[in-house]
Amino acid sequence: MVKLLISIPAEPVAQGRPRLSSRGGFARAYDPPKSRSWKAFVADYAERAMKQAGLETPMDGPLIVKVRFAFPLPKSQHRKKIKPATWHMKRPDLDNLYKGLIDGMEGIVYHRDSEIVKVIMDKIIVEQGKAPYVNVSIATIEALNL
Fold first, then answer.
1. Which helix (H) or strand (E) holds 106?
2. How far is CA 43 from CA 82, 85, 117, in A?
């Protein structure tokens, strides 16, 4: 089993809705600038993690992905008693966070995102004084024996 751990020390960014424009009578869809820069940032950390793990080519086969999106404590909560980490139940949605992250790693960590067969993810608010982050674990998974 091949396993890769990636830790991104930044606040998670959700995949934005595609923007549309027309030029010469043809419609064109493109990523919003914030989503595009987040994917490039993720790709940079993915390349570093691949080099550190000694992996030269993208992973093959069925993959399992585990992700934790950690958001900073809201400013309104800073003066209150020190709070432990809690679940983040507001926007952005978990699926939009996942999409931006996975798109950024495609072609670097794995060939296509269709190779991912199992996903475990959550989003939390970190403790007071801690920095936001995204932790990703990607591993090959055994074939089904039915």
1. none
2. 34, 27, 21
